[in-house]
Amino acid sequence: MSIEVPEGLAGRTKKSAEYFKRATQVIPGGVSANIKYFAPYPLAMEKGKGSKLYDLDGNEYIDYLLCNGALIFGHGNQKINSAVTKQMQESGTTVFGTPHRLEAEMAETITTIFPSIEKVRFTNSGSEATLLAIRLAMAYSGKKKLAKFEGHYHGGYDRVLLSVNPELGEAGEEEHPQAVPDSMGVPDYYVRNTIILPFNDIKATESILRAHSEEIAGIIMEPVLGGFIPAEAVFMSELRKLTSELNILLIMDEVKTGFRLTIGGAQNLYGVEPDITTLGKVLGGGFPVGAVGGKKEIIDLLSPTHGSDILSSGAASGKKNNVLFHSGTYNGHPVILAAGLATVRALKRPGVMDQLMINTQLLRDKLEEVYAKHQIPMKTVGMGSIFNIVLTERAVQNYRDLKHANMNLREKIDYELLNLGIYTKPMTRYSMSCVHTIEDIERTAAAHDQALTYVEEQEK
């Protein structure tokens, strides 16, 4: 589908258009990740400060994308920047390539925040964390199939690129969804060995799990689908009971929700302790990071003290089938952990998270008032400091409910909001930061009012 940029936006973002044309000559689609693209060209940024982004043409935007939620203190936070420069200056290097004190310090910090986590292993991204979590579940259980929920995203690799955004005509019955690849190149093996579950439907989920309990190593899930559709409390508690009964590991993917709903993530709110937790985004303070944590007996499978280093050429390293291998040159990077520790410490200051939640709710309330004024059915759906704007009168409990929303109108509004200096990728959720101000909130609500008026006039 061809999308035209509003005339005003096209005139204001000529350098982004020129950059995109240049980038497409050497980068497929002009972007380094598919999620950064939107038609006909994404806006290219020059700098950021606080709650604001500035594009190549110098236009200012209030940023609600926040690097897909990672920047909970916005752009250029001084405490985080100082922690990074201090680490490099005092250590005399950017990275050691060896163990260092910040690894244990961050791991200890995580275990105090998340009661379900007894030990931690670091990765370079949330995607790497979920990949490792699945490997752990397979190794610990000895079973070979994975269950995941329809509409949930856990990274851009073969094992989980299934039924994230399927066409409903291919997705099967609502109570018994089918595995649908979301990308070319996903081997049939993963389609056959991945069981898709219906989110927020415990009865149907139980039926599927009981039928396949001898095959399923673990269930991986987002406690808040897409970062904004929460699991029902009873669904979470019943799922935990069921997985324990059936000896299926519960992997809670808190890459989006860790530190954004409460310091202890969604599991703290629900009172549910998973077997394995994955973290990322906020944990890195704006740098690439991931972490896998959980029960000692599971995470200890990664220990090289009772396995082998498969890369030690010629060494008497034991049987490879007894090894749960995990490695990465930049795992536990000292600069990243310094930024992450500064972030977590700042979040733990009295009142910081409380004010973030108050401001998020204030923005949600004001936006709902604006849409009600224009008599447009709309819900702000979310939890904690993340929400999305869904143009519907229906309850939104799962991926399929989103198919009934007015996506066409939402897209038109989003493009006009870009023209008015409100930034998030069109159709994407809103992430709040601790540096968004009341003035930002007022400006955002006013921009929505103006955008709705513009779109209404265009459709007359």
UniProtKB/TrEMBL annotation:
Q: Which UniProt keywords apply?
A: Aminotransferase, Pyridoxal phosphate, Transferase
Where would one find coiled-coil regions in this protein?
A: none
Claim: Ribonucleoprotein is one of the keywords in the record: no
| Cited Pfam families | Aminotran_3
Listed CDD domains: OAT_like (cd00610)
Record-level Gene Ontology MF annotations? transaminase activity
Keyword check for Cell membrane: no
InterPro entries xrefs? Aminotrans_3, PyrdxlP-dep_Trfase, PyrdxlP-dep_Trfase_major, PyrdxlP-dep_Trfase_small
Q: Which cofactor does it need?
A: pyridoxal 5'-phosphate
Give the family this protein belongs to, as stated in its UniProt record: Belongs to the class-III pyridoxal-phosphate-dependent aminotransferase family.
Q: What is this protein called?
A: Aspartate aminotransferase family protein
Q: What is the species of this protein?
A: Sporolactobacillus terrae
